[in-house]
Amino acid sequence: MSDYLPQEVLIKILARLPPVSLIKFRCVSKSWNLLISSPFFISMQTEQAIISKPVDAGTEQIIVRRYSKAQNSELYTVHIDNEEFPDDKNIKIEYPFRDSTRFYYRIVGSCNGVLCLSDDLFGQADSTLLWNPVIKRKVTLPVPQATFDTMGPYMFVLGFGFDVENNDYKLVRMAYVQGDYGYLVPPKVEVYALSIGNWREFSGEVPVNCVVEYFWSEVLISGKVHWVAYRNMGMQEKVENLIMVFNLSSEVFDEMQLPSALENELPINLNAAVLARSLAVVQYDERVWSKSCCIWVMKNYGDRESWSKQYNIEVDGGLGTILGFRSNGDVLLTARNRGLVSYNPVTGQIRDLGIFGTKDSFYVGTYVESLSLLVEGKEARERIPSDTETESESESECESSVEDDEDRYGDVEKSEFWMQSSMCQYLTVLLKRTFM
């Protein structure tokens, strides 16, 4: 058929097809393989996937991750953001990293169908991965320069996104040395670009005395990564909260002011978010045992005077975490003992979505199917038992797993609570005196 179609028409037709079909079509001919594997076509297909699903049409896709007690594994599902919030039956995600980490990865961010995973939730980080689940490709990042061996005790923060100007995925990594009275500033900063495949030291300026904690979520808006940060002014000085920004294209740091009501809030209670494509900040009453929260929105990007308190959210039994916002304005959050729920901030009505997992394992992000990592990545598939494993061995493993389930699941939830409580206690002791 391609012999009778102009090349431009053929490209436009192929760019509208799902990645799974395009992977198969590479076998049609050498010319199709070269076309579909080219950076130009991959970029075009991704752009087409983004613009073909407008957020106000109820067709946007949302990826949900949680840790399943029953399966002792992370589970990923893609949902269509309409009233029913159903699974997208056309997308099946195999999880290939069951034996690679303790319990589950932290998801740094999701961009253009690529997830950035970091193994740093339950101990020292061993690996950082880029993963495209729909085409089953992964990239394992090399070890950065700043490690425990080179710096001693330290804490690091990652930011992930897509550099539109250079058509490249990038990560920025800030490593803070642990001092006697908190983290030392400025941090050691490194930048990773997928096109280069290695970390390089950042030589530009970093906002003065700013600290970002690794467990605070990033927000990606217009090619810029945003985090809540606090300015460390020393032992006797007051701490000031702000938004720290990194432009992935120009590789320049910047800072933005928060509303005056949040400047001197305990920073552990704040987290960045995106609401209707605008920068937002969630303010919890408490971080671990939260009963309520409010959401602030910057209506005009970069204008401090445009911050306004948009919603107050209260959930019977207590909140878990605000995870994201739906195209209809509902808030996706976790509620204690209820799993993932959809909350209408105007009426206060809650709808259980029937998606369950351990409390802190949930992640929600917008999702598109793309060919990203097709060329750079390696195959990432779920491990299949080898032919040498006997049936009796498999049954024995299953029985052992069932016997250990209660202890293992308890370990997951206890570890989640211990990690979050420890971080909150540390920051509260370190910073609370400056907010008194």
UniProtKB/TrEMBL annotation:
Q: Where is this region: Disordered?
A: 382-409
User: Which residue intervals define the domain F-box in the entry?
Assistant: 1-44
Q: Which InterPro entries match?
A: F-box-assoc_dom_typ3, F-box-assoc_interact_dom, F-box-like_dom_sf, F-box_dom, SCF_F-box_component
Comp. bias intervals (Acidic residues): 388-408
Q: Where are the transmembrane segments?
A: none
- PROSITE patterns, from UniProt? FBOX (PS50181)
- Protein known as: F-box protein At3g07870-like
Please give the organism.
Sesamum indicum
